[in-house]
DNA sequence: TTCGGTCTATTGGTCACACCTTTGAGAGGA
DNA sequence: TCCTCTCAAAGGTGTGACCAATAGACCGAA
Protein backbone atom coordinates (compact mmCIF):
# COMPACT_ATOMS: atom_id res chain seq x y z
CA UNK A 1 0.00 0.00 0.00
CA UNK A 2 1.19 3.51 -0.69
CA UNK A 3 2.39 4.52 -4.08
CA UNK A 4 4.92 7.22 -3.35
CA UNK A 5 6.13 9.43 -0.59
CA UNK A 6 3.26 11.80 -1.23
CA UNK A 7 1.05 9.03 0.03
CA UNK A 8 2.70 9.34 3.43
CA UNK A 9 2.27 13.08 3.52
CA UNK A 10 -1.30 12.85 2.28
CA UNK A 11 -2.13 10.47 5.09
CA UNK A 12 -0.45 12.65 7.68
CA UNK A 13 -2.45 15.63 6.55
CA UNK A 14 -5.83 13.93 6.28
CA UNK A 15 -5.12 12.23 9.56
CA UNK A 16 -4.46 15.46 11.39
CA UNK A 17 -0.85 14.64 12.22
CA UNK A 18 0.15 17.56 10.04
CA UNK A 19 -2.31 20.22 11.04
CA UNK A 20 -3.58 22.97 8.76
CA UNK A 21 -1.22 25.90 8.81
CA UNK A 22 1.85 23.74 9.31
CA UNK A 23 4.69 24.65 7.01
CA UNK A 24 7.03 22.32 5.21
CA UNK A 25 9.80 23.06 2.77
CA UNK A 26 10.98 21.14 -0.23
CA UNK A 27 14.27 20.68 1.55
CA UNK A 28 12.54 19.12 4.55
CA UNK A 29 10.83 16.66 2.27
CA UNK A 30 13.98 15.85 0.33
CA UNK A 31 15.86 15.20 3.55
CA UNK A 32 13.10 13.20 5.18
CA UNK A 33 12.45 10.85 2.28
CA UNK A 34 15.88 10.89 0.72
CA UNK A 35 14.65 12.02 -2.66
CA UNK A 36 15.63 14.67 -5.13
CA UNK A 37 14.02 18.00 -5.53
CA UNK A 38 12.38 16.91 -8.78
CA UNK A 39 10.59 14.03 -7.15
CA UNK A 40 9.68 16.09 -4.12
CA UNK A 41 8.08 18.69 -6.32
CA UNK A 42 6.15 16.05 -8.24
CA UNK A 43 4.53 14.84 -5.08
CA UNK A 44 3.88 18.33 -3.83
CA UNK A 45 2.19 19.13 -7.11
CA UNK A 46 -0.21 16.27 -6.55
CA UNK A 47 -0.98 17.22 -2.97
CA UNK A 48 -1.49 20.75 -4.16
CA UNK A 49 -4.02 19.74 -6.77
CA UNK A 50 -5.83 17.70 -4.13
CA UNK A 51 -6.18 20.89 -2.13
CA UNK A 52 -4.10 19.62 0.78
CA UNK A 53 -1.20 22.05 0.32
CA UNK A 54 -0.49 25.43 -1.09
CA UNK A 55 3.01 26.46 -1.95
CA UNK A 56 4.08 30.01 -1.33
CA UNK A 57 7.41 31.49 -2.24
CA UNK A 58 9.61 32.60 0.54
CA UNK A 59 7.36 30.66 2.93
CA UNK A 60 7.19 27.03 1.96
CA UNK A 61 4.45 24.49 1.65
CA UNK A 62 1.51 25.32 3.84
CA UNK A 63 -1.00 22.66 4.85
CA UNK A 64 -4.42 23.86 3.75
CA UNK A 65 -7.45 24.11 6.03
CA UNK A 66 -9.89 21.25 5.77
CA UNK A 67 -12.54 23.12 3.78
CA UNK A 68 -10.02 23.43 0.96
CA UNK A 69 -9.51 19.71 0.60
CA UNK A 70 -10.85 17.89 -2.45
CA UNK A 71 -12.86 15.46 -0.37
CA UNK A 72 -14.32 13.88 -3.50
CA UNK A 73 -10.95 12.87 -4.94
CA UNK A 74 -10.67 9.09 -4.74
CA UNK A 75 -7.19 9.38 -3.28
CA UNK A 76 -8.38 11.62 -0.48
CA UNK A 77 -11.39 9.44 0.20
CA UNK A 78 -9.07 6.48 0.48
CA UNK A 79 -6.81 8.26 2.92
CA UNK A 80 -9.69 9.41 5.05
CA UNK A 81 -11.17 5.93 5.16
CA UNK A 82 -7.94 4.52 6.52
CA UNK A 83 -7.23 7.35 8.92
CA UNK A 84 -8.09 7.50 12.58
CA UNK A 85 -11.24 9.39 11.61
CA UNK A 86 -12.45 6.60 9.34
CA UNK A 87 -15.75 6.38 11.12
CA UNK A 88 -16.57 10.01 10.52
CA UNK A 89 -15.59 9.60 6.88
CA UNK A 90 -17.90 6.60 6.54
CA UNK A 91 -20.77 8.51 8.06
CA UNK A 92 -20.29 11.41 5.69
CA UNK A 93 -20.08 9.13 2.68
CA UNK A 94 -23.20 7.35 3.79
CA UNK A 95 -25.09 10.59 4.19
CA UNK A 96 -24.04 11.56 0.71
CA UNK A 97 -25.26 8.25 -0.59
CA UNK A 98 -28.58 8.69 1.17
CA UNK A 99 -29.01 12.04 -0.52
CA UNK A 100 -28.02 11.02 -4.01
CA UNK A 101 -29.32 7.54 -4.66
CA UNK A 102 -33.06 8.25 -4.74
CA UNK A 103 -32.51 11.07 -7.20
CA UNK A 104 -30.24 8.87 -9.27
CA UNK A 105 -32.85 6.11 -9.34
CA UNK A 106 -35.46 8.51 -10.60
CA UNK A 107 -33.21 9.73 -13.39
CA UNK A 108 -32.14 6.19 -14.19
CA UNK A 109 -35.76 5.27 -14.85
CA UNK A 110 -35.85 8.00 -17.46
CA UNK A 111 -32.49 7.58 -19.08
CA UNK A 112 -31.34 4.00 -18.69
CA UNK A 113 -30.33 2.04 -21.79
CA UNK A 114 -31.85 -1.29 -22.57
CA UNK A 115 -28.71 -3.06 -21.47
CA UNK A 116 -28.75 -1.21 -18.17
CA UNK A 117 -32.37 -2.19 -17.56
CA UNK A 118 -31.54 -5.84 -18.18
CA UNK A 119 -28.51 -5.63 -15.96
CA UNK A 120 -30.45 -4.07 -13.10
CA UNK A 121 -33.12 -6.79 -13.29
CA UNK A 122 -30.51 -9.49 -13.50
CA UNK A 123 -28.58 -8.20 -10.49
CA UNK A 124 -31.69 -7.77 -8.38
CA UNK A 125 -32.69 -11.36 -9.08
CA UNK A 126 -29.18 -12.51 -8.33
CA UNK A 127 -29.20 -10.63 -5.04
CA UNK A 128 -32.36 -12.42 -4.05
CA UNK A 129 -31.06 -15.89 -4.74
CA UNK A 130 -27.65 -15.21 -3.18
CA UNK A 131 -29.21 -13.47 -0.21
CA UNK A 132 -31.68 -16.24 0.48
CA UNK A 133 -28.91 -18.79 0.13
CA UNK A 134 -26.87 -16.89 2.69
CA UNK A 135 -23.93 -16.43 0.37
CA UNK A 136 -23.08 -13.05 1.81
CA UNK A 137 -19.78 -12.49 0.06
CA UNK A 138 -21.23 -12.85 -3.41
CA UNK A 139 -24.35 -11.04 -2.32
CA UNK A 140 -22.32 -7.97 -1.55
CA UNK A 141 -20.66 -8.07 -4.95
CA UNK A 142 -24.04 -8.14 -6.63
CA UNK A 143 -25.31 -5.37 -4.36
CA UNK A 144 -22.39 -3.14 -5.27
CA UNK A 145 -22.90 -3.85 -8.96
CA UNK A 146 -26.59 -3.09 -8.67
CA UNK A 147 -26.07 0.33 -7.16
CA UNK A 148 -23.36 1.07 -9.68
CA UNK A 149 -25.68 0.33 -12.58
CA UNK A 150 -28.35 2.61 -11.21
CA UNK A 151 -25.91 5.45 -10.61
CA UNK A 152 -24.43 5.10 -14.07
CA UNK A 153 -27.82 4.80 -15.71
CA UNK A 154 -28.79 8.17 -14.26
CA UNK A 155 -26.84 9.75 -17.09
CA UNK A 156 -25.36 12.24 -14.64
CA UNK A 157 -21.61 11.93 -14.54
CA UNK A 158 -21.46 13.38 -11.05
CA UNK A 159 -23.75 10.67 -9.78
CA UNK A 160 -21.88 8.03 -11.72
CA UNK A 161 -18.65 9.22 -10.16
CA UNK A 162 -20.04 8.22 -6.78
CA UNK A 163 -20.26 4.57 -7.75
CA UNK A 164 -16.88 3.82 -6.21
CA UNK A 165 -17.85 5.69 -3.08
CA UNK A 166 -21.01 3.69 -2.69
CA UNK A 167 -19.06 0.52 -3.32
CA UNK A 168 -16.69 1.52 -0.56
CA UNK A 169 -19.54 2.19 1.82
CA UNK A 170 -21.36 -1.02 1.03
CA UNK A 171 -18.21 -3.05 1.40
CA UNK A 172 -17.18 -1.45 4.64
CA UNK A 173 -20.55 -1.15 6.30
CA UNK A 174 -20.29 -4.31 8.35
CA UNK A 175 -16.98 -3.17 9.81
CA UNK A 176 -18.67 -0.13 11.26
CA UNK A 177 -21.93 -1.67 12.37
CA UNK A 178 -23.89 0.74 10.23
CA UNK A 179 -26.01 -1.85 8.50
CA UNK A 180 -27.65 -5.15 9.31
CA UNK A 181 -25.38 -7.93 8.15
CA UNK A 182 -28.03 -10.27 6.88
CA UNK A 183 -30.02 -8.96 3.94
CA UNK A 184 -33.61 -8.44 5.05
CA UNK A 185 -36.49 -9.65 2.89
CA UNK A 186 -37.91 -6.14 2.56
CA UNK A 187 -34.57 -4.94 1.25
CA UNK A 188 -34.59 -7.68 -1.37
CA UNK A 189 -38.09 -6.69 -2.37
CA UNK A 190 -37.06 -3.06 -2.61
CA UNK A 191 -34.12 -3.88 -4.85
CA UNK A 192 -36.44 -5.84 -7.11
CA UNK A 193 -38.88 -2.98 -7.16
CA UNK A 194 -36.20 -0.45 -8.05
CA UNK A 195 -34.97 -2.65 -10.87
CA UNK A 196 -38.47 -3.11 -12.24
CA UNK A 197 -39.29 0.56 -11.98
CA UNK A 198 -36.08 1.46 -13.77
CA UNK A 199 -36.77 -1.13 -16.44
CA UNK A 200 -40.38 0.02 -16.88
CA UNK A 201 -39.38 3.67 -16.83
CA UNK A 202 -41.36 4.60 -13.75
CA UNK A 203 -39.29 7.36 -12.17
CA UNK A 204 -41.50 8.02 -9.16
CA UNK A 205 -41.63 4.38 -8.21
CA UNK A 206 -37.90 3.97 -8.68
CA UNK A 207 -37.26 6.91 -6.40
CA UNK A 208 -39.71 5.69 -3.77
CA UNK A 209 -38.21 2.25 -3.44
CA UNK A 210 -34.66 3.52 -3.44
CA UNK A 211 -35.79 5.98 -0.80
CA UNK A 212 -37.01 3.04 1.24
CA UNK A 213 -33.60 1.42 0.96
CA UNK A 214 -31.64 4.46 2.04
CA UNK A 215 -34.10 5.18 4.84
CA UNK A 216 -33.10 1.82 6.28
CA UNK A 217 -29.52 2.97 6.13
CA UNK A 218 -30.44 6.26 7.71
CA UNK A 219 -32.14 4.50 10.59
CA UNK A 220 -29.14 2.26 11.15
CA UNK A 221 -26.92 5.33 11.09
CA UNK A 222 -28.99 7.18 13.67
CA UNK A 223 -29.19 4.37 16.16
CA UNK A 224 -25.54 3.44 15.88
CA UNK A 225 -23.29 4.64 18.70
CA UNK A 226 -21.72 8.04 18.20
CA UNK B 1 -8.17 33.35 -16.75
CA UNK B 2 -5.96 30.33 -17.21
CA UNK B 3 -3.14 29.76 -14.83
CA UNK B 4 -0.67 27.66 -16.75
CA UNK B 5 -0.38 25.61 -19.86
CA UNK B 6 -2.10 22.73 -18.15
CA UNK B 7 -5.17 24.90 -18.14
CA UNK B 8 -5.19 24.78 -21.93
CA UNK B 9 -4.81 21.02 -22.02
CA UNK B 10 -7.42 20.57 -19.31
CA UNK B 11 -9.89 22.58 -21.32
CA UNK B 12 -9.13 20.69 -24.50
CA UNK B 13 -9.75 17.39 -22.76
CA UNK B 14 -12.93 18.36 -20.93
CA UNK B 15 -14.13 20.00 -24.09
CA UNK B 16 -13.69 16.92 -26.19
CA UNK B 17 -11.08 18.43 -28.49
CA UNK B 18 -8.63 15.89 -27.13
CA UNK B 19 -10.66 12.73 -27.06
CA UNK B 20 -10.18 9.88 -24.62
CA UNK B 21 -7.54 7.52 -25.88
CA UNK B 22 -5.53 10.26 -27.57
CA UNK B 23 -1.85 10.07 -26.83
CA UNK B 24 0.51 12.92 -26.14
CA UNK B 25 4.17 12.89 -25.26
CA UNK B 26 6.13 15.16 -23.00
CA UNK B 27 8.10 16.25 -26.03
CA UNK B 28 4.92 17.27 -27.84
CA UNK B 29 3.95 19.41 -24.91
CA UNK B 30 7.39 20.94 -24.53
CA UNK B 31 7.46 21.87 -28.19
CA UNK B 32 3.92 23.16 -28.32
CA UNK B 33 4.17 25.43 -25.32
CA UNK B 34 7.87 26.17 -25.40
CA UNK B 35 8.52 24.92 -21.91
CA UNK B 36 11.02 22.64 -20.28
CA UNK B 37 10.48 19.05 -19.43
CA UNK B 38 10.27 19.86 -15.72
CA UNK B 39 7.42 22.26 -16.23
CA UNK B 40 5.67 19.97 -18.64
CA UNK B 41 5.81 17.18 -16.11
CA UNK B 42 4.43 19.45 -13.40
CA UNK B 43 1.37 20.17 -15.43
CA UNK B 44 0.96 16.57 -16.45
CA UNK B 45 1.12 15.60 -12.81
CA UNK B 46 -1.81 17.87 -12.07
CA UNK B 47 -3.89 16.61 -15.00
CA UNK B 48 -3.07 13.11 -13.88
CA UNK B 49 -4.30 13.71 -10.36
CA UNK B 50 -7.48 15.18 -11.82
CA UNK B 51 -8.02 11.90 -13.61
CA UNK B 52 -7.77 13.42 -17.08
CA UNK B 53 -4.55 11.70 -18.09
CA UNK B 54 -2.59 8.60 -17.31
CA UNK B 55 1.07 8.36 -18.18
CA UNK B 56 2.47 5.08 -19.38
CA UNK B 57 6.09 4.40 -20.11
CA UNK B 58 7.00 3.68 -23.64
CA UNK B 59 3.56 4.95 -24.70
CA UNK B 60 3.07 8.51 -23.57
CA UNK B 61 0.28 10.43 -21.92
CA UNK B 62 -3.07 8.89 -22.62
CA UNK B 63 -6.26 10.90 -22.25
CA UNK B 64 -8.49 9.07 -19.80
CA UNK B 65 -12.09 8.09 -20.50
CA UNK B 66 -14.70 10.40 -19.01
CA UNK B 67 -15.71 8.11 -16.15
CA UNK B 68 -12.19 8.47 -14.78
CA UNK B 69 -12.37 12.24 -14.49
CA UNK B 70 -12.55 13.87 -11.09
CA UNK B 71 -15.72 15.73 -11.90
CA UNK B 72 -15.90 17.13 -8.38
CA UNK B 73 -12.54 18.88 -8.55
CA UNK B 74 -13.18 22.63 -8.66
CA UNK B 75 -10.77 22.99 -11.55
CA UNK B 76 -12.58 20.42 -13.62
CA UNK B 77 -15.96 21.90 -12.76
CA UNK B 78 -14.70 25.27 -13.91
CA UNK B 79 -13.46 23.86 -17.19
CA UNK B 80 -16.68 22.02 -17.86
CA UNK B 81 -18.72 25.12 -17.11
CA UNK B 82 -16.82 27.10 -19.71
CA UNK B 83 -16.71 24.36 -22.31
CA UNK B 84 -19.07 23.85 -25.19
CA UNK B 85 -20.97 21.40 -23.00
CA UNK B 86 -21.59 23.99 -20.30
CA UNK B 87 -25.31 23.43 -20.39
CA UNK B 88 -24.99 19.73 -19.66
CA UNK B 89 -22.58 20.53 -16.83
CA UNK B 90 -25.05 22.99 -15.34
CA UNK B 91 -27.83 20.46 -15.48
CA UNK B 92 -25.74 17.84 -13.74
CA UNK B 93 -24.66 20.26 -11.04
CA UNK B 94 -28.25 21.31 -10.53
CA UNK B 95 -29.39 17.71 -10.19
CA UNK B 96 -26.69 17.17 -7.61
CA UNK B 97 -27.86 20.21 -5.73
CA UNK B 98 -31.44 18.99 -5.81
CA UNK B 99 -30.34 15.73 -4.28
CA UNK B 100 -28.11 17.11 -1.60
CA UNK B 101 -29.66 20.27 -0.24
CA UNK B 102 -32.73 18.79 1.49
CA UNK B 103 -30.53 16.28 3.29
CA UNK B 104 -28.08 19.02 4.22
CA UNK B 105 -30.88 21.18 5.59
CA UNK B 106 -32.07 18.35 7.78
CA UNK B 107 -28.60 17.77 9.18
CA UNK B 108 -28.04 21.49 9.58
CA UNK B 109 -31.06 21.68 11.86
CA UNK B 110 -29.39 19.12 14.09
CA UNK B 111 -25.82 20.31 14.02
CA UNK B 112 -25.77 24.05 13.34
CA UNK B 113 -23.88 26.31 15.71
CA UNK B 114 -25.53 29.31 17.29
CA UNK B 115 -23.68 31.62 14.96
CA UNK B 116 -24.84 29.63 11.94
CA UNK B 117 -28.45 29.82 13.10
CA UNK B 118 -28.20 33.59 13.46
CA UNK B 119 -26.55 33.89 10.09
CA UNK B 120 -29.22 31.83 8.35
CA UNK B 121 -31.99 33.92 9.87
CA UNK B 122 -30.21 37.15 9.00
CA UNK B 123 -29.63 36.10 5.40
CA UNK B 124 -33.21 34.93 4.90
CA UNK B 125 -34.49 38.27 6.15
CA UNK B 126 -32.04 40.08 3.94
CA UNK B 127 -33.14 38.05 0.94
CA UNK B 128 -36.71 39.10 1.59
CA UNK B 129 -35.98 42.81 1.76
CA UNK B 130 -33.62 42.75 -1.21
CA UNK B 131 -35.95 40.58 -3.22
CA UNK B 132 -38.97 42.73 -2.57
CA UNK B 133 -36.94 45.81 -3.41
CA UNK B 134 -35.96 44.25 -6.71
CA UNK B 135 -32.24 44.51 -6.00
CA UNK B 136 -31.47 41.32 -7.82
CA UNK B 137 -27.70 41.54 -7.81
CA UNK B 138 -27.45 41.79 -4.04
CA UNK B 139 -30.28 39.30 -3.68
CA UNK B 140 -28.24 36.70 -5.43
CA UNK B 141 -25.27 37.31 -3.17
CA UNK B 142 -27.45 36.78 -0.12
CA UNK B 143 -29.00 33.70 -1.70
CA UNK B 144 -25.60 32.18 -2.33
CA UNK B 145 -24.51 32.96 1.22
CA UNK B 146 -27.68 31.43 2.61
CA UNK B 147 -27.23 28.13 0.86
CA UNK B 148 -23.56 28.09 1.83
CA UNK B 149 -24.40 28.48 5.51
CA UNK B 150 -26.87 25.62 5.39
CA UNK B 151 -24.44 23.32 3.60
CA UNK B 152 -21.65 24.15 6.03
CA UNK B 153 -23.90 23.83 9.05
CA UNK B 154 -24.71 20.25 8.02
CA UNK B 155 -21.39 19.26 9.56
CA UNK B 156 -20.71 17.00 6.60
CA UNK B 157 -17.56 18.10 4.83
CA UNK B 158 -18.71 16.52 1.58
CA UNK B 159 -21.85 18.63 1.62
CA UNK B 160 -19.90 21.71 2.63
CA UNK B 161 -17.55 21.14 -0.28
CA UNK B 162 -20.52 21.64 -2.60
CA UNK B 163 -21.02 25.22 -1.46
CA UNK B 164 -18.96 26.57 -4.33
CA UNK B 165 -20.82 24.38 -6.76
CA UNK B 166 -24.17 25.65 -5.57
CA UNK B 167 -22.85 29.22 -5.74
CA UNK B 168 -21.86 28.58 -9.32
CA UNK B 169 -25.26 27.19 -10.18
CA UNK B 170 -27.14 30.00 -8.49
CA UNK B 171 -24.99 32.61 -10.16
CA UNK B 172 -25.24 31.11 -13.58
CA UNK B 173 -28.86 30.01 -13.55
CA UNK B 174 -30.21 33.06 -15.33
CA UNK B 175 -27.76 32.56 -18.17
CA UNK B 176 -29.24 29.15 -18.85
CA UNK B 177 -32.90 29.91 -18.28
CA UNK B 178 -33.12 27.26 -15.63
CA UNK B 179 -34.71 29.44 -12.98
CA UNK B 180 -37.19 32.27 -12.79
CA UNK B 181 -35.26 35.51 -12.65
CA UNK B 182 -37.48 37.31 -10.22
CA UNK B 183 -37.61 35.77 -6.76
CA UNK B 184 -41.11 34.47 -6.14
CA UNK B 185 -42.86 35.17 -2.84
CA UNK B 186 -43.22 31.46 -2.07
CA UNK B 187 -39.50 31.05 -2.48
CA UNK B 188 -38.87 33.87 -0.02
CA UNK B 189 -41.25 32.23 2.43
CA UNK B 190 -39.51 28.91 2.00
CA UNK B 191 -36.10 30.43 2.68
CA UNK B 192 -37.48 31.99 5.83
CA UNK B 193 -38.99 28.68 6.85
CA UNK B 194 -35.74 26.82 6.30
CA UNK B 195 -33.84 29.37 8.36
CA UNK B 196 -36.34 29.16 11.19
CA UNK B 197 -36.41 25.39 11.15
CA UNK B 198 -32.63 25.28 11.24
CA UNK B 199 -32.55 27.81 14.06
CA UNK B 200 -35.22 25.96 16.04
CA UNK B 201 -33.64 22.60 15.35
CA UNK B 202 -36.57 21.12 13.47
CA UNK B 203 -34.91 18.77 10.99
CA UNK B 204 -38.05 17.51 9.28
CA UNK B 205 -39.36 20.99 8.70
CA UNK B 206 -36.00 22.19 7.41
CA UNK B 207 -35.88 19.32 4.96
CA UNK B 208 -39.45 19.86 3.80
CA UNK B 209 -39.01 23.52 2.99
CA UNK B 210 -35.67 23.01 1.32
CA UNK B 211 -37.35 20.24 -0.64
CA UNK B 212 -39.94 22.75 -1.77
CA UNK B 213 -37.20 25.07 -2.98
CA UNK B 214 -35.35 22.44 -4.98
CA UNK B 215 -38.61 21.09 -6.38
CA UNK B 216 -39.11 24.49 -7.96
CA UNK B 217 -35.69 24.14 -9.50
CA UNK B 218 -36.52 20.65 -10.67
CA UNK B 219 -39.68 21.88 -12.36
CA UNK B 220 -37.79 24.65 -14.11
CA UNK B 221 -35.20 22.12 -15.23
CA UNK B 222 -37.78 19.75 -16.67
CA UNK B 223 -39.67 22.33 -18.65
CA UNK B 224 -36.56 24.00 -20.01
CA UNK B 225 -35.67 23.15 -23.61
CA UNK B 226 -33.35 20.21 -24.03
C1' DT C 1 6.75 57.35 17.29
C1' DT C 2 4.83 55.97 13.16
C1' DC C 3 4.36 55.27 8.57
C1' DG C 4 6.10 54.01 4.17
C1' DG C 5 9.49 52.72 1.08
C1' DT C 6 13.61 49.80 0.08
C1' DC C 7 16.69 46.02 0.52
C1' DT C 8 17.82 41.26 1.15
C1' DA C 9 17.79 36.54 2.35
C1' DT C 10 14.87 32.69 1.69
C1' DT C 11 12.17 29.67 -0.80
C1' DG C 12 9.64 27.94 -4.64
C1' DG C 13 9.80 27.98 -10.05
C1' DT C 14 12.16 26.87 -14.24
C1' DC C 15 15.70 25.07 -17.03
C1' DA C 16 19.23 21.95 -19.34
C1' DC C 17 21.32 17.69 -19.31
C1' DA C 18 22.40 13.12 -18.03
C1' DC C 19 21.14 8.66 -16.78
C1' DC C 20 17.84 4.88 -15.07
C1' DT C 21 13.65 1.94 -15.68
C1' DT C 22 9.96 0.03 -17.87
C1' DT C 23 7.73 -1.97 -21.71
C1' DG C 24 5.44 -2.35 -26.56
C1' DA C 25 6.61 -4.32 -30.60
C1' DG C 26 9.21 -6.47 -33.88
C1' DA C 27 12.89 -9.97 -35.10
C1' DG C 28 14.10 -14.46 -35.07
C1' DG C 29 14.07 -19.15 -33.85
C1' DA C 30 11.62 -23.57 -32.35
C1' DT D 1 1.93 -20.61 -35.19
C1' DC D 2 3.82 -19.36 -31.08
C1' DC D 3 7.16 -18.19 -27.91
C1' DT D 4 11.29 -15.67 -26.47
C1' DC D 5 14.59 -12.29 -26.79
C1' DT D 6 16.18 -7.97 -27.85
C1' DC D 7 15.98 -3.07 -28.38
C1' DA D 8 14.50 1.44 -28.85
C1' DA D 9 11.14 4.72 -27.23
C1' DA D 10 9.02 6.87 -23.70
C1' DG D 11 8.39 8.33 -18.98
C1' DG D 12 10.93 8.60 -14.16
C1' DT D 13 14.65 10.38 -11.36
C1' DG D 14 18.66 13.03 -10.10
C1' DT D 15 21.90 17.24 -10.23
C1' DG D 16 23.21 21.77 -10.23
C1' DA D 17 22.45 26.16 -11.70
C1' DC D 18 19.88 30.26 -12.06
C1' DC D 19 15.37 33.10 -12.05
C1' DA D 20 11.46 35.29 -9.57
C1' DA D 21 8.70 36.48 -5.92
C1' DT D 22 8.18 38.05 -1.33
C1' DA D 23 8.13 38.17 4.14
C1' DG D 24 10.35 40.62 7.09
C1' DA D 25 14.01 43.39 8.60
C1' DC D 26 15.86 47.86 8.04
C1' DC D 27 16.03 52.72 7.47
C1' DG D 28 14.67 57.32 6.80
C1' DA D 29 11.31 61.03 6.61
C1' DA D 30 7.11 63.15 8.55
Automatic annotation (TrEMBL), chains A, B:
<keyword id="KW-0238">DNA-binding</keyword>
<keyword id="KW-0804">Transcription</keyword>
<dbReference type="Pfam" id="PF00392">
    <property type="entry name" value="GntR"/>
</dbReference>
<dbReference type="InterPro" id="IPR008920">
    <property type="entry name" value="TF_FadR/GntR_C"/>
</dbReference>
<dbReference type="InterPro" id="IPR036388">
    <property type="entry name" value="WH-like_DNA-bd_sf"/>
</dbReference>
<protein>
    <submittedName>
        <fullName>FCD domain-containing protein</fullName>
    </submittedName>
</protein>
<keyword id="KW-0805">Transcription regulation</keyword>
<dbReference type="InterPro" id="IPR000524">
    <property type="entry name" value="Tscrpt_reg_HTH_GntR"/>
</dbReference>
<feature type="domain" description="HTH gntR-type">
    <location>
        <begin position="1"/>
        <end position="66"/>
    </location>
</feature>
<dbReference type="InterPro" id="IPR011711">
    <property type="entry name" value="GntR_C"/>
</dbReference>
<dbReference type="Pfam" id="PF07729">
    <property type="entry name" value="FCD"/>
</dbReference>
<dbReference type="InterPro" id="IPR036390">
    <property type="entry name" value="WH_DNA-bd_sf"/>
</dbReference>
Amino acid sequence: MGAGFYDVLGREITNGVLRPGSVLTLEDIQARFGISRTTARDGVKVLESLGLLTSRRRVGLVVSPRPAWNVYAPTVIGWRLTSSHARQAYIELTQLRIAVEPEAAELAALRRSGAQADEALRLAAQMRSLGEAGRLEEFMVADVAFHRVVLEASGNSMFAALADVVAEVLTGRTQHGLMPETPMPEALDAHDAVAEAVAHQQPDRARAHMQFLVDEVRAALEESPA
